[in-house]
Amino acid sequence: MDYIKFSCEIKSCSIEELDKEDQALHKAALESCEKAYAPYSKFYVGAAVRMNNGETIVANNQENMAYPSGMCAERIAVFQAKSAYPKSAIDTICITAKNDTEEPITSCGSCRQVMLEYEKIQTGPIKIIMVQSTGKTWISESVNNLLPFGFDLPKQE
C-alpha cells in the first residue's frame, strides 16, 4: 500500500498586515455581514469579490426556512460577479463573519467547488482571504489549496 501526502500553504497574518487594497476588500465584506439574513443559524457571513477589472462585488449569506434553500455569501458574490462581468477574472475573494469562532472563516465544500471551477476556467489563481471576527487572517493564493480533490472540468474535444 502506498500513501500520498498532500499539503497546502496558507499564510497567517492580521488585518493590519494586509495591503490597502485587501484591507478595503475586507472592510466591504465586513460591512456586508450587517445585511445577511441568518435568523436560524445567527451566523452572519459577508463576502467581497475583487475582479481583475477593478470592480468589487459584495454579498452575504441568505438563509431560508426550507433548508437548504438558502445560499452562502461566497456563492452569491461569485455568481453575481461572473454574471455582471463574464469576461473578467476573479482576482481575490475575502470572507468574514460576525461570530466568536477562534479561527478564520472558511468556505463550505459547495462554495469551494464553485470557486475552484471559476479558477480553472480563468486559468489563473483566485486569492482567498479568510478573516476571523477579531482580525486573525488566513490567506490562500489558490482555491486549489482549499479543495485539492475538487471536480475537474470535462475535457473539451
Report on the structure:
The chain has a single domain, classed as Cytidine Deaminase, domain 2 (3-Layer(aba) Sandwich). It is an alpha+beta fold and 157 residues long. A six-stranded mixed beta sheet has the order 1-6-5-4-2-3. The longest helix has 14 residues, at 20-33. 25% of the residues lie in helices and 23% in strands.
Question: What is the structure about, briefly put?
Answer:
The protein has 157 residues and is α+β, with helices and mostly antiparallel strands. The chain has 3 helices and 6 strands.
* Average pLDDT over all residues: 93
Along the chain, the helix and strand elements come as EHEEHEHEE
Estimate the global geometry from the Cα principal axes: globular
Unreliable segments (pLDDT under 50, ≥5 consecutive)? none
Binned strand content: 15-25%
Helix content: 10-25%
CATH second-level architecture = 3-Layer(aba) Sandwich
Spell out the CATH superfamily: Cytidine Deaminase, domain 2
In order across it, which strands form the biggest sheet? Answer: 1-6-5-4-2-3
Main sheet, how many strands, which sense, barrel? 6 strands, mixed
State the domain count.
1
What Rg is obtained from the alpha carbons, in whole angstroms?
A: 16 Å
The SS-based structural class is: alpha+beta
- State the end-to-end distance: 35 Å
Instruction: Work out the helix count.
Output: 3
Number of strands: 6
CATH domain fold name: Cytidine Deaminase, domain 2
CATH C-level name:
Alpha Beta
